[in-house]
Design goal:
The complex is a heterodimer of chains A (85) and B (599). With 85 residues, chain A is mostly helical. Chain A has a domain at 25-80. Chain A has three helices and no strands. Chain A is elongated, with a radius of gyration of 18 Å. Chain B starts with 8 loop residues before the first helix and ends in a 9-residue tail after the last helix. With 599 residues, chain B is mostly helical. Chain B has 26 helices and three strands. The radius of gyration of chain B is 24 Å and the shape is globular. In chain B, strands 1-3-2 form a three-stranded antiparallel β-sheet. Classes of the chains: A mainly alpha (85), B mainly alpha (599). The interface between A and B is large, with 46 and 54 residues.
Chain lengths: 85, 599
């Protein structure tokens, strides 16, 4: 495998992990919206309600920063990172 | 000041923010000294627009790079703020809390969709398109797949989606300007348009970038300040986001107590157009999983296909910065979006809880009709009560409000000084203007760069190219304003359609362009053309009484369009020949952050 292919394989792996987490918090939990809403969530809000107004949104923010850092590490590992100017 | 403009950005915008807060305080003092509500409203709107116009003037440029991509030097955090302003439209600012107020959980799919989409932007597209080094989104499609037809189709999809979106924004600027300046809507629309063009015409993307940052500051202060203030005013807690659980539960109790009484069609016919009553539970799950998920999914894929957002990431200094910048964008969006449900909760509770001094449910109809704020908002056609059952008391099902009133009227209802209402008007104006700017620029740039420069006159000189771009900007702006003045469709409905159009035609051609080397020109043509056509056909069908299938509605027709687009693109790509070696190398290059850009 060439260096490019290895780099792309790792990049793709990271994509799948990121999208899996994204799927859970954007779609997965809402499949069970009615059931989860009877559970008390953070700050005492009904759980599904909390996810729609704060939880999922906040998790997406953190997820993107986490993804960006991981991708930077992958790029550096293969020497594909941009040089600082 | 020492150093370049970019180095001084935090200082410049710090001073600006301080100045704006000073202005708010000045207005508050003015109010105490007897300034009229109308004068305060005019001052707020006029002052902020003047600032944006000055920034637009200072950002004027004669360079192609600055005009199209702000010289590719916008720092991560500032690009995040600009994107957030670009993203959060008049609909987000004025209509979102209202939608949550009326529809509850089912509506909040939009919150999830309009934020979750950024994960797709960050992982699938933004860094790669930044590496590509294109000026516009059709520039990527045209270069990756080759040929003028792909480029033209991308321009068409972009124009359909963005134009649908921009008329709604100009409509919103018109609504706010007509209220704040007290002029007829038909003229207010053009006041809004001229302010929008002032920001973008001279400086293109550079002007839009720096005004958008300024507009973000105004809109976020204007949104958060009332939410926190009202929460404290009615004793709900000093930090509403963490402290409204009791209020949410209390609304649930009141809903039980009042019940959702259904009004007869004859009674409803007497309610002014555009107003609605509370008919859905506030925090209970009141939508089927698929209704919620399909709407969220459509909005997420639409987010990742809307060119005016994507092109903001062309302005960052590097690929790495583009990725981080998506995170910052979403953070700044999160600040407002997570506050919208809190505002809806506070607004609803203060209106319907009979134990609060502001509560009107259970009061006599005559008393409610005598309240000052009721009279004001009734006159503005945003509030209405009627004694359907003739018992003389206001019931939950007898109270109607316009969606915009949640944001615009709640400060007044909760007894906040008028200066807050003026601030909210300025914030709504900033939100609508910043989005309209981004959209008009996206359309004008695509036509001037991709159609005029790349297809009609590739030898055009810089000065001529920029003149064409500016003329187009004005023409498109006026076309959009003319349609907006006709008031054909509501603000929110057309915004959602824009997402569906964009995802129908562009989502898979963009994503597969990076992630599937085998995708070729023929496939892209089929994907864009069939995706957009089938999406539109589905919309027309459902609008004309068609039953639809799989629960796909006129708000989520993009799911159908995008599915057709995917199938068409894969099938056609596979039965035609693979892209040539040069194109394959180009894709390899896009996937590596280091090195020169492709174009």
């Amino acid at each position: 495998m060439t260096k490019n292919e290895q780099h792309w394989e790792k990049t793709r792996g990271l994509l799948f992990i990121t999208l899996a987490i994204w799927f859970v918090f954007s779609i997965g939990i809402f499949l069970f919206g009615a059931e989860l809403n009877s559970v008390s969530g953070p700050f005492g809000y009904p759980l599904t309600y909390w996810f729609t107004c704060q939880g999922s949104l906040g998790i997406f923010v953190i997820l993107i920063f986490w993804f960006a850092n991981r991708q930077e590490k992958i790029d550096e590992e293969f020497g594909f990172a941009e040089r600082e100017e | 000041m020492k150093g370049s403009f970019i180095d001084n950005l935090p200082k410049v915008y710090g001073i600006y923010t301080g100045g704006f807060i000073g202005f708010i305080i000045l207005m508050a003092i003015g109010e105490q000294m007897g300034m009229t509500a109308k004068a305060i409203g005019i001052c707020f709107v006029a002052f902020t627009i003047a600032i944006y116009a000055i920034i637009g003037w200072l950002s004027r440029t004669a360079q192609v790079d600055a005009y199209y991509v702000a010289g590719r030097q916008v720092p991560t955090v500032f690009n995040g703020m600009a994107t957030a302003a670009d993203w959060m439209s008049g609909a987000s600012f004025v209509a979102m809390a209202g939608g949550i107020y009326f529809k509850g959980y089912g509506y909040m799919a939009l919150l999830v969709g309009w934020t979750g989409g950024y994960v797709l932007v960050a992982t699938l597209l933004a860094p790669y398109l930044r590496k590509f080094g294109c000026y516009t989104v059709p520039d990527f499609i045209g270069t990756r797949y080759g040929g003028n037809l792909t480029r033209l189709l991308a321009v068409i999809v972009l124009t359909v989606a963005s134009f649908t979106y921009v008329t709604a924004q100009i409509n919103a600027t018109g609504t706010i300007a007509s209220v704040a300046l007290d002029i007829p809507f038909q003229y207010a629309v053009y006041v809004g348009l001229v302010s929008i063009l002032l920001c973008s015409m001279l400086g293109g993307m550079r002007g839009v970038t720096w005004t958008q940052v300024a507009q973000y500051v105004v809109l976020i202060i204007a949104y958060l300040l009332p939410v926190f203030w009202i929460s404290n005013e009615i004793g709900a807690g000093f930090f509403p986001h963490f402290m409204l659980a009791d209020e949410v539960a209390r609304i649930g109790e009141l809903e039980q107590q009042f019940g959702f009484v259904k009004n007869s069609a004859a009674d409803l016919a007497t309610v002014p157009k555009g107003l609605a009553g509370i008919t859905k539970a506030h925090s209970a799950v009141n939508a089927t999983p698929w209704a919620f998920i399909s709407l969220a999914l459509a909005m997420m894929m639409g987010t990742a296909s809307l060119p005016h957002v994507m092109m903001r990431y062309f302005t960052t200094p590097s690929v790495k910065a583009a990725r981080k910048s998506v995170g910052w964008s979403l953070f700044f969006i999160f600040l407002l979006y997570s506050s919208a449900p809190m505002l809806a909760t506070l607004s609803k509770l203060s209106l319907i809880d009979p134990t609060l001094p502001t509560g009107i449910i259970g009061k006599s109809i005559a008393d409610v009709q005598a309240i000052d704020w009721y009279q004001n908002w009734n006159a503005a056609n945003l509030m209405f009560v009627s004694d359907f059952n003739g018992n003389g008391t206001l019931e939950l099902n007898e109270f109607f409000m316009g969606g915009k009133a949640v944001v615009l009227a709640t400060p007044e209802i909760a007894g906040l000084p008028y200066v807050i209402s003026g601030l909210v008007a300025a914030g709504g104006m900033a939100a609508a203007m910043s989005t309209a700017d981004g959209l008009i620029l996206a359309i004008a740039n695509a036509i001037s760069h991709d159609v005029y420069y790349k297809m009609i006159d590739p030898k055009a000189e810089t000065a001529k190219r920029l003149t064409v771009a500016r003329v187009l900007l004005v023409v498109i702006g006026f076309a959009a304003a003319t349609i907006a003045a006709m008031e054909i469709q509501g603000i929110l409905g057309s915004v959602i359609w824009a997402f569906d159009f964009a995802m129908s035609g562009l989502f898979f051609p963009l994503v597969l362009g990076v992630w599937w080397k085998r995708a070729n020109k023929e496939g892209a043509i089929a994907g864009m053309a069939l995706g957009l056509i089938s999406g539109m056909a589905y919309l027309v069908w459902v609008r004309n009484g068609g039953s639809g299938f799989l629960g796909i509605t006129q708000l989520t027709f993009g799911i159908f369009g995008a599915a057709v687009s995917l199938v068409a693109m894969v099938v056609v790509s596979l039965i035609t020949s693979a892209p040539d070696a040069a194109t394959q190398r180009m894709v390899d290059n896009v996937r590596v952050p280091a090195g020169k850009s492709i174009i």
